[in-house]
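Researcher: I'm preparing a figure for a lab meeting and need a structural model of a single chain. I don't have an experimental structure, so a prediction will have to do for now. The sequence is pasted below. Please return the structure as tokens so I can convert it later.
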Amino acid sequence: MRISVVTPSFNMARYLEDTIKSVVANLRPGDEYFVIDGGSTDGSVDTIRRYEHNITAWISEPDAGYADA
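Model: Understood. Here is the structure written out token by token.
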């Protein structure tokens, strides 16, 4: 069984690193992890880039809120 985890985020750089670390620590081989950022301007993308080797895919673009992400 494969698990897919999605973290939606918008200007949450303060919490994003801890969130990514926690999710990655709980993934098993074959699991997927996606970070969907709503076009943050607070350094979130820098955090995502630091961990992108642990993330299946990520995107940062304006959206219509968490449900849209």
